[in-house]
Structure formats: C-alpha cells, structure tokens
Write a sequence for this structure.
DNA sequence: CTAGGACCTGGAGTGGACTCCAAGGCAAAC
DNA sequence: GTTTGCCTTGGAGTCCACTCCAGGTCCTAG
C-alpha cells in the first residue's frame, strides 16, 4: 500500500502529500480537525510525517473515498487515540461502514443496469 | 420504475416530489437550471408534472446518484431537447458515464477489500 | 551570498448542490 | 366561509470539504 517503506524516515509535508495522494492543504486541514495526530515539528516549526502517518492516511483515504464524512472519521480517529480497549468499537464502526459501502455498490450496480437499458434503448431508436 | 403509471395524469409539485424522490425545492431548482422542461402551469401559476416528467426524473436520479455533476446533466438535457438527431451523441455521453460508473464500482470494491483487511486485523488483535 | 523553492500561520473564499425563508396566493375540507 | 395546508417567487443561507491567500520564515543549490 505504501511504496518505499523506510522505517524511521521522516517526510516533509510535500513529500507526504506526494506519497499519500492528499494535498498539503488537506493534510494541514486534517491535522487541524484532529484526523492526524502526533505530527512532530522541526525546531523551525516544519512538520515531519512518518510511515505510521502514511499508513493512517491510507485508511483515511479509503474511508473518505468510500463516502465517510469527516465527522465520522474524526470519531474513528478518536477511538484509535483512546487505545487498545476500543478495538471492538472500531470493528463495529468499520463493519457498519462496510455495510454502507456494500449498499452503495449494490445501488451503483442497479443504476448501471438502468443506464445500460437506456443506452440500448437509445441505440435501438438511433 | 414508476408506480401507478396513469397516462394524462397531472401531478402537483408535492406529488411529483413524493413519486420521484426529489424534494420540491430540488424540482424547482432543476427546472430553473434547465434540467426539467415543459412544466405546464395552472391558470393560477401552479406547476403540473406529467408521467413523462417522472420518467425523465428517473433518469436524472440515476445520473445524479451515480455522480454525474449537474452541469453534465444539463448537457444531456440539452441533447434531449435538440431532438432525434442527437441520439448517437446521447449514447456517447451515457456510455462515457457508464464507464465512469464502472471505474467507480471497481474502486469501491477495491476499497471494500482493504476495509475487510482492516476489520480482520482489528479483530485479530482485539 | 543569494535566488528560488518549500514551508509556516490564520483566516477568508470557493464550488457544488441544494435548502430555507418571507410574504403572499390558492385549494379542499368541514 | 374560514381554516389548514399546498403552492408561488426571488433571493439569501447552508453545508461540506476543501482551497487559496498574504505575508512571512526557512532551506538548499549554485
């Protein structure tokens, strides 16, 4: 999932953006709203991200791209912050989301069929 | 797709909303931006929708729910307005959209698998 | 040493798609 | 005939998720 994994490496925000697929602005925004934690800073204030962050960003990307709203992602982030004892709760949340994704896929497939029908119809009268 | 089809029937905007799944506000908005045409009015100015509109709204719903932006839907509506000679162009547009939908579905399925992996992982450490 | 690029902050602005509102007209039920 | 509810308009407001900006600092290649 993450290319060139190099433990202990530190990435600038630009590099992290390039590797995660988020923009720098989005990364700063996510940090601000509490979706990204423990970003260390250089003595001059620049952010440094780790491979752990990249892994976490992979999860966020998955959740975001499958339609989870920021607020819910914040809830998940909060669970992760809270420690090991939230594991079952995390599973519950992800399971619920997976179900939502399944429904979404089913809906898309139904709409895809409808679309094919329309296309056939247009072809038949063209 | 449309229940209780009753040719020549006329529906108030409220009834049309109920049957189409759009809100009244959205219907008015769609009319305003040119997504819905030929809405007749009573002498007192109230809109009356037909089964033809409901059918068209079914298409719009499909396109919207599969992620087509309003502007593109307007383009499609324009083709439909322009008459029979735009059939191949309509097919082209819908085909392109179907491909986008296919990609979207594939992406969702990949993310779904990723999610399942995460859930398994969380379960394993819980 | 200096030019150019990467990074910082707080806050304002954007885009898309609605969604709501006030102030009023009209319709159907009782 | 009046109350209750549905409908009208133009325009303003909302929400989400960024995205951009100004004005400044910092880093690095030559």
């Amino acid at each position: 999932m993450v290319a060139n994994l190099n433990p202990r490496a530190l990435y600038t925000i630009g590099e992290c953006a390039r590797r995660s697929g988020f923009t720098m602005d989005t990364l700063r925004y996510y940090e601000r709203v509490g979706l990204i934690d423990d970003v260390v800073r250089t003595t001059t204030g620049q952010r440094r991200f780790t491979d752990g962050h990249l892994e976490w960003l992979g999860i966020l990307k998955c959740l975001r791209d499958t339609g989870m709203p920021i607020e819910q992602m914040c809830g998940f982030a909060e669970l992760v912050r809270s420690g090991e004892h939230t594991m079952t709760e995390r599973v519950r949340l992800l399971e619920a989301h997976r179900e939502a994704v399944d429904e979404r896929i089913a809906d898309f497939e139904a709409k895809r069929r409808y679309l094919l029908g329309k296309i056939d119809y247009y072809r038949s009268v063209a």
Notes: Chain A touches chain B at residues 1, 58-59, 62, 65-66, 84, 87-88, 90-91, 94-95, 97-98, 101-102, 104-105, 107-109, 111-112, 114-116, 118-119, 122-123, 125-126 (CB under 8 Å). Residues 12-14, 24, 28, 44-47 of chain A lie near DNA strand C (CB under 10 Å from a C1'). Residues 87-125 of chain A form the longest helix (39 residues).
